[in-house]
Amino acid sequence: MSFQPVKFYQTGTFTVGNRLLEPDQRSVQANMERTNSLNSGHRACQGCGEALGARYAIDAAMHATNNQLIAANATGCLEVFSTPYPETSWQVPWIHSLFGNAAAVATGIAAAIKVKRLKGETKEDVRVVAQGGDGGTTDIGFGCLSGMFERNDDVLYICYDNGGYMNTGVQRSSATPPAARTATTMPVGAEPGNPFGQGKFVPSIAMAHEIPYVATATVADLRDLEHKVKKAMTFRGARYIHILVPCPLGWGSPSGDTIKLSRLAKETGLFPVFEAQYGEITGSAKIREPLPVEEYLRPQKRYAHLFGKKPAYETIVRLQALADRNIRRYSLLDKEAN
Amino acid sequence: MNKPFAITLDPGSSLANHTGSWRTERPVYVDRLPPCNNQCPAGEDIQGWLFHAESGNYEAAWRHLTTHNPFPAIMGRVCYHTCEGACNRGKLDAAVGINSVERFLGDEAIKQKWQFDRPAAESGKHVLVIGAGPSGMSAAYHLRRLGHQVTVVEAGPLVGGMMRYGIPKYRLPREVLDAEMQRIVNMGVRVVLDTKIENVLDTMKEGSYDAAFLAVGAHIGKRTAISDGEGPRVFDAISVLRGLENGEKIPLGRRIAVYGGGNTAIDVARTVRRLGAEPIIIYRRTQDKMPAHAFEIEEALQEGVTIKCLSTIKQTDPKGIVIEKVQADSRGSLHPTGEYETLEVDSVVLALGQNVDLGALKGVPDIELNDGVVKVDANMMTGHAGLFAGGDMVPTDRNVTVAVGHGKKAARNIDAWLRGTTYAAPEKHQIATFERLNTWYYSDAPKTVRPMLDVIRRQSTFDEVQGGLDETNALFEARRCLSCGNCFECDNCYGVCPDNAVIKLGPGKRFQFNYDYCKGCGLCVAECPCGAINMVPENI
């Protein structure tokens, strides 16, 4: 756990708010005056995890920077549903870049602010966030992102990972998990779905750049997510947060299950929630109730081919092995440390 | 037009886009009936008062509690808390210690000398209450709150009824009982002691009462003919408990046979044990069939009470009593075996149940009796208009909590009757079942156990057996409440909505949906810990 949980207050810090907590112990989202950086009226699907994750993250960043924040946004669902010309849902200075250059645009904004401050044209310490989906981050924008990390530019990059190109019709990305069905993975045959052994886990690559701060989070644990965004804002240089955001459309899940699935991804160990500084892991969110991966897979239609008349036991076992490896690698089962 | 190249429209907010039109189902906030409230014979709003206790506002909790039941300190000691058996938390780890928090609030009220408010306006009506037991005093309290003048007439020398003469001191210290009774007197309720009413209609006429509530209890011990005048003396349990309470010396001797398996038998045995006697309970069925509560049997055994099961007392004998062994068959039917033994005892106490003294109703027309108790309708009224009855004297489970509930129900109906209307109880909400909770959100927290008095002191003194909680663990225990079916303002719905379609109205005011933007995704419903949001189809 990355933050100190409050115990024995009925719901502790599991819920968004808690009337029994002191105001400074409450979450940003519980506040009646939260920024609502991504406002109502956006065109995201019902139960969109990305819309939720983006508001959680940007509201927390606004809170941490005293509203002195500029956001650069890669092409993708988040941009399409929030800003169809001439409307926008953003209540924060926001720029739409190309699909692949959000990190570079953010770098430029950060450099411009630096120059303005040096010239004395502004006294405000304006911070910069770049954000995009997994397609814009792990595939198309990866070169710019790696460059931003390597130069240690003063930008927080947030990736909302829903495991595919959802807004163009659910195509595979390098963040699509193994065995998941997409429009561009093998629909039939011996091993339908995304092949094992391909793809990449960008948080690990970000850590390999030894940047000041890397973290993962889910929309199921708001307090953990907010803590990580605020913590990221205490560092200068390149920072990266990777947030798992379920997509009811692409995952084939009921719209009301978005948070439940995020929780199950974390509890089964398939999505490790951890943080790292300068290339070293400094902590991980522990599993509260260990569960088999099947609990996470079964409610999603993208894994339906595993649970037909002849269940694909071998594939399920291989996915369980991935979860078990995460549990070992990120020490996800250490009850004492919780 | 002064716009950049290729730009023709001014920027606008997405608030113009009312995404609520996408919805096929809408979420609505509901209040459901928590299983504890549903179970409570006194109709307490348990979840409601725990809500106040959770925030440490004990006076608000106490005031909320006492709108339904004026005796939390007594309840916290003698109520059999069936609410805890119904508690949803029991399916998670262990039920919330509702009874222990109730006792803490009751004790706190006595310590802080909190009093009930007098009614804002007097109705001008005068109600006679006969019997100052739990039912009568509860009715007096509720009638007084409703603005009526109340006179309670009690046959005994002190108020309390069975709470004083049926429940031993080690379970209910008398200063606690006195404090909660006095608080009702302080509201302006008149109590007349040592007065037995011969005929209720005459008394009503003499005192120009507008209505009467009878709650005389069941104080006449049932007897069975086992003595032929020789051998040990035979007493009945209620007389023994009443006599000991009044400080009388009763020649019970050292070895005492208590006949019966109910709570009264246990009370007598544990009381005489504390006076140095060796009680033996004789019961005709097996121990698991005893009507007494299991925890009381267990505590009695710990204190050195002997229980002899599958035995009946045939008769007394110059040396003691003759006992016949009984056999129970697989269906539970009892068969005498013809095997006898003699048990040397000095006295026999019969705890075979109690009958009602119906003297005050003699000659009253239209009263219907049923197996020695008075029949009442759904509004607690007897066949005689204006004459209500409750507690042990009507067909019911006989315990303090039920009696207190009768008092409340009768008071509401008497109030309506005096106004020439009938009381319409508000419709009950649907039950908040365990399946509707999202238990992920509740912290793990084991139940706080109340301290028990050392067994040596329980065998020789009348000190209270069960201790209470202190402020810190009472608060902890209150916060274990899951608030089943009722919003406790955790902000989850406000947080998890991807469309900002939940409006937070501020502390104590809960939330509201903004249906202009709610797309009906159902996340708020799924993530509400206590199941206080429903999805209902839209009319499309």
TrEMBL record, chain A:
Keywords, ordered alphabetically: Oxidoreductase, Pyruvate
- Any Pfam family matching the protein: TPP_enzyme_C
Q: Does the keyword Oxidoreductase apply?
A: yes
Q: Which InterPro entries match?
A: PorB-like, THDP-binding, TPP_enzyme_TPP-bd
| Low complexity: compositionally biased ranges | 172-185
* UniProt region (Disordered), positions on chain: 171-192
Per the record, the GO terms for biological process are: small molecule metabolic process
User: Superkingdom of this entry's organism?
Assistant: Bacteria
Thiamine pyrophosphate enzyme TPP-binding domain location: 75-243
Question: Does the keyword Hydrolase belong to this entry?
Answer: no
Q: Please list which residues make up the signal peptide.
A: none
GO MF, one example: oxidoreductase activity
Q: What is this protein called?
A: Pyruvate ferredoxin oxidoreductase beta subunit
**Which organism encodes this protein?**
Propionivibrio dicarboxylicus
UniProtKB/TrEMBL annotation, chain B:
Superkingdom, natural source: Bacteria
Per UniProt, what is one GO molecular function of this protein?
oxidoreductase activity
* Positions of the 4Fe-4S ferredoxin-type domain: 478-508, 509-538
Q: Keywords assigned by UniProt?
A: Iron, Iron-sulfur, Metal-binding, Pyruvate
Enumerate the InterPro entries for this protein.
4Fe4S_Fe-S-bd, 4Fe4S_Fe_S_CS, DPD_II, FAD/NAD-bd_sf, FAD/NAD-binding_dom, Helical_ferredxn
* UniProt keyword Secreted, yes or no: no
Name the residues that span the membrane.
Answer: none
List, alphabetically, the Pfam families matched.
Answer: Fer4_20 (PF14691), Fer4_7 (PF12838), Pyr_redox_2 (PF07992)
Q: What is this protein called?
A: 2-oxoacid:acceptor oxidoreductase, delta subunit, pyruvate/2-ketoisovalerate family
**In which organism is this protein found?**
Propionivibrio dicarboxylicus
